Amino acid sequence: MSNESHTFDRSVIAEIHRAANTGIYRIRGFGAKRKLPTLDELVFLGASMSRYPLEGYREACGTDVVIGEGRAERPVRLDIPITIAGMSFGSLSAQAKEALGRGANAAGTSTTTGDGGMTAEEREHSSTLVYQYLPSRYGMNPDDLRKADAIEVVVGQGAKPGGGGMLLGQKITERVGKMRTLPEGIDQRSACRHPDWTGPDDLEIKIIELREITGWQVPVYVKVGAARPYYDTALAVKAGADAIVVDGMQGGTAATQDVFIEHVGIPTIAAIPEAVRALKELGVHREVKLIAAGGIRTGADVGKAIALGADAVSIGTAALIAIGDQNPALEAEYQALGTSAGSWEDYQAGTDPAGITTQDPALAGRLDPVIAGRRLANYLQVLTLEVQTLARANGKSHVHNLEPEDLAALTVEAAAMAKVPLAGTNWIPGVTG
Amino acid sequence: MNPGSESTILDMEITTLRELNAALHEADSGDFVVRNPRGAHAVAAGINSPVAVTVEGSVGYYCAGMHQVGRVLVHGNASTGLAENIMSGEVRITGSATMSAGATGHGGLLVIEGNSGARCGISMKGVDIVVGGNVGHMSAFMAQAGSLVVLGDAADDLGDSIYEAQVFVRGDVASLGADCIEKEVRPEHIEIVTGLLAASSMQADPADFRRYGSARQLYNFHVDDIDAEVAAR
Ligand SMILES: Cc1cc2nc3c(=O)[nH]c(=O)nc-3n(C[C@H](O)[C@H](O)[C@H](O)COP(=O)(O)O)c2cc1C
């Protein structure tokens, strides 16, 4: 029997030693790593005597999503309900951004800029590009705004609701520094609040300004970390958003304090139903679109998020893995960095052997954007085929016809959070007793 | 205004905000007069050509937001976010502005003849701002580049977490924010102030201004390494 303490286990002890040595909190990339309730705790019921399935390979099962119809002259039209989340050039190499664009184009979906502005390469390689409007306004340029296919006002992200962006000095190269108007090598800590608006009433006016400047051409999204999704969604609708991106606490990050990643926000499974509740109460469900993010990995996750009421999902970490992050073929190099494939989390360090989360030209040069783009396209295709398979099995001719009715929960906690019955019962804790 | 040329009148009593901004965006040049703005938001936002716009009256939020190239003159006051993210050109207001005037501006010139409220020049990234009166608390918060020239006083926490922007104040500074310090005024700084006073047609003696900027103590995390020190013994 080991006499290791459960309270002071090895990782806790290692962290105390690290803190005592350095005097600085732990900053890392990736998302929450501790065991959190996930969409795995839900299952689809499938068809039965009273529910007819559709033929797996023959009968149509739509996957398209339209965002901003009715308000924007040019709504965003996506072929699949899976988008690529905002990740900045700076946090990612130019090659990685290009790969994301190529993969998204092939799959008929959008990519998103990030904290640091739009690069010309990124615009060129993404047919549908969402421009993030962040508190820092690094590289914020009306010319780029007008080139965007949609605008995403970022209030927060799941990894750190309440925290601003972070990019450590190793990654602030001359080009990155120039784009952000910052001295080279600085440890960038971006603003966490927008400089010229506070609260939903101001946001409503801000959205009007953005629409005026872009001639009401493109949709406006609002992205929030999953903190109080019911209220945040209702307020974003009031402010006039065409889409709300709710990013659960599992959501990935390029660099954030570990204490923030692991201890702030609520899990995606708990956030989606709350956002949907707000949309339904306001009578705008499936009209104002809900994009769910944070820990989406499989077609099952996509299908469950949609069944709970989301219109689409957004992926960050999974897309990076698809283009080569955590690649076991790089095991020796990960070992040399004191980690291993599957555990690599030092996105902030700029030493990524896969050439993705780095600004080092030699490392970044290892990533072939064409090949990596094909990998992403394949992965997105698998997610789409999986979600279609699940939808057909539940008798749905469009993924958006999936509904909570099609789901059951495996744990009492998941039943309470997702507001679907515990499997084998009709008990939804807090709803039906 | 270009003398002799005819101005186009846009009266917000009969012209909607959309029509107003669309007209300004479509024009390649010319003079425009906006009447009856009555505190409307986003007036003359997103200008991107050498037009000259005179607004007769006070405006709401984000007047001349993301301004490029042209000139906007407001005869009145402005609410939050006047000329936010201005890139180039000039925005001038005869009255006072409330919060976040010139926020995140990347270039160009913003002139406020009256006072400016809190967070004037917040996160400014290259714009030059001249304020005839006082500025409110947290002005030049996280300011990255450009110059803020204040002919009056500055309220608390001036230049909190400031980067490479420069702040010049003629009057009193209630207090400086984190990492902001007073700095020596050298001839090149007098030159900057002289130039901006001339560009903004403001009367003051450049020698009367004191300069504030970053102590650069917050630029990088301080990381200790006791283990390395001990191993090296
Ligand atoms: C490398 C990296 C960089 C990111 N940069 C940004 C950013 O600039 N702006 C933003 O809103 N979110 C950013 N995020 C968060 C993503 O947009 C998204 O919310 C998150 O990755 C979704 O969770 P997932 O990683 O589990 O899919 C970043 C995430 C990663 C992994």
Mind explaining what this structure looks like?
Chain A has 433 residues and is of the alpha/beta class. An eight-stranded parallel beta sheet of chain A has the order 5-15-14-12-11-8-7-6. Chain A has helices at residues 10-22, 94-107, 120-125, 142-147, 174-180, 199-213, 229-238, 258-263, 268-281, 299-307, 317-323, 331-336, 361-364, 369-393, 412-418; strands spanning 27-30, 42-44, 65-67, 76-78, 82-84, 111-112, 129-133, 150-154, 166-167, 188-189, 220-225, 243-247, 253-257, 289-293, 312-315, 407-409. Chain A has one domain (31-402): TIM Barrel. Chain B has a single domain (8-232), classed as Glutamate synthase, alpha subunit, C-terminal domain (Pectate Lyase C-like, 3 Solenoid), CATH 2.160.20. Chain B is built from three helices and eleven strands; from the N terminus they run E-H-E-E-E-E-E-E-E-E-E-H-E-H. An eleven-stranded mixed beta sheet of chain B has the order 1-2-3-4-5-6-7-8-9-11-10, covered by helices on one side. The longest helix of chain B has 13 residues, at 187-199. The radius of gyration of chain B is 20 Å and the shape is elongated. The relative contact order of chain B is 0.09. The interface between A and B is large, with 34 and 46 residues. Bound molecules: flavin mononucleotide (FMN). Flavin mononucleotide is lined by residues 29, 31, 85-88, 91-92, 114-115, 132, 154, 157-158, 165, 223, 247, 250-254, 293-296, 315-318, 347, 357 of chain A.
